[in-house]
Write a structure and sequence with these properties.
Largest sheet: 4 strands, antiparallel
Mean pLDDT: 85
Low-confidence stretches: none
CATH topology of the largest domain: N-terminal domain of TfIIb
CATH class of the largest domain: Mainly Beta
Order of helices and strands: HEEEE
Number of domains: 2
Shape: elongated
Distance between the termini: 40 Å
Length: about 80
């Protein structure tokens, strides 16, 4: 189980290491990565991360490659 704190969230697992600035950046990136994003096809907020750079819409089933932590929907190409 990972350690969490109120102040730093999921980066609490690092304890006092690496500095507060780096831990806050990691917590911010992880929060963005875990939230639901907009689908480029059906325009619903239902895209979740499957793996590194692989994103899948849970509504229409579209699977596409984009950014590693946040989908960059401006560059998404997909085939129907």
């Amino acid at each position: 189980m990972t350690r969490r704190t109120k102040k730093i969230g999921t980066a609490g697992r690092f304890g006092a290491r690496y500095g507060v600035r780096v831990r806050k950046q990691i917590a911010s990136i992880e929060a963005q990565r875990r939230k639901k994003h907009m689908c480029p096809r059906c325009l619903k907020r239902s895209v979740k991360r499957e793996g590194t750079s692989i994103w899948r819409c849970r509504h229409c089933g579209l699977t596409f490659a984009s950014g590693a932590y946040v989908p960059n929907l401006g560059r998404v190409r997909y085939e129907d």
